[in-house]
Amino acid sequence: MTLKNITKKTLLSTNLKEARSTTDKILGLLRKSNPRSLMFKTRFGIHTFLLKSAIDVLILDSQNKVVSVKSLKPNRIFIYNPMHSLVIELPTGTIQKSKTQKGDKLTFK
User: Fold this and answer.
1) How far is residue 42 from each of residues 2, 5, 7, 46, 97, measured CA to CA in Å?
2) Which residues of 4-26 are buried (b: 16+ CB within 10 A; e: fewer)?
3) What is the spatial distance between Cα 96 and Cα 41, in angstroms, rounded to a whole number?
4) For residue 44, how far is the Cα from the chain centroid?
5) Which terminus of the chain has fewer CB atoms gathered within 10 Å of its CB, N or C?
């Protein structure tokens, strides 16, 4: 799946995977079979325990607008407003390169 920032007209990912299984959601980027870009729904926050490198994280609202932007180092916890549930994990530097910020609208294809 591709992920685009339609506000800035930039491409964030060409290999975005939607994590649907419990295993994919729990292990996320630790699973070798998962690409470096992952999308999933959760209301409990995320963590980067056992990851070897930092990741970029976007939290989206129900209209796919960015409500939170974060770069997370390994072994960190990120708690966000539980009313938002769509999380996108991307390789570090993606947010800066695409100039994605709060309020931007994203699309998936």
Assistant:
1) 21, 22, 25, 8, 26
2) bbebeeeebbeebbebeeeebee
3) 23
4) 14
5) C
Residue-level pLDDT at 28 = 65
- Quote the pTM value: 0.89
Contact yes or no for 105/63 (Cβ under 8 A): yes
pLDDT of the residue at 64:
97
Note the pLDDT of residue 108.
92
The string of pLDDT tens digits covering residues 42-71 is: 888 888 888 888 999 999 999 999 999 999
**Angle (nearest 5°) at CA 84 between 24 and 73:** 60
Contact 46, 79 (CB under 8 A): no
Answer yes or no: are the C-beta atoms of 64 and 107 closer than 8 Å. yes
CA atoms within 13 Å, Cβ hemisphere of 69: 16
